[in-house]
DUF7745 domain-containing protein
Amino acid sequence: MLKRFTFNTFDLTLTIEEYQALISLPADRGNKSYIYDRKLTLQRSLSKFMGDIHASEIKKQIKTKEGKNCIPINYLINLVRGCLSRKKGLSLIALCIYGTVIFPRIKRYVEEEVVKIFVGIE
């Protein structure tokens, strides 16, 4: 069920521009949209993002929890430790935070949908 912030019939939900102003994001930054790609799997999206890790290696780490494909946080943290690029390392840390703090459905795992959205926007 989709919930909205309303007062009587007036919609109080913030617009994208209002959110940008709240977090002091410049409007001319070039906003990116997420486009869902049904063919993009968890291993392909993470492999594409990392660049130097083959999808078959990532596939070995994928577990099914509560009917969803997930990647262990510990595996992502180990990728951060071995990452040569500071930017990719910081992005992986952000992915771990998004997966555990913002979308905390399965403990110690990041769900496939979270990885796809993060990689799609990143």
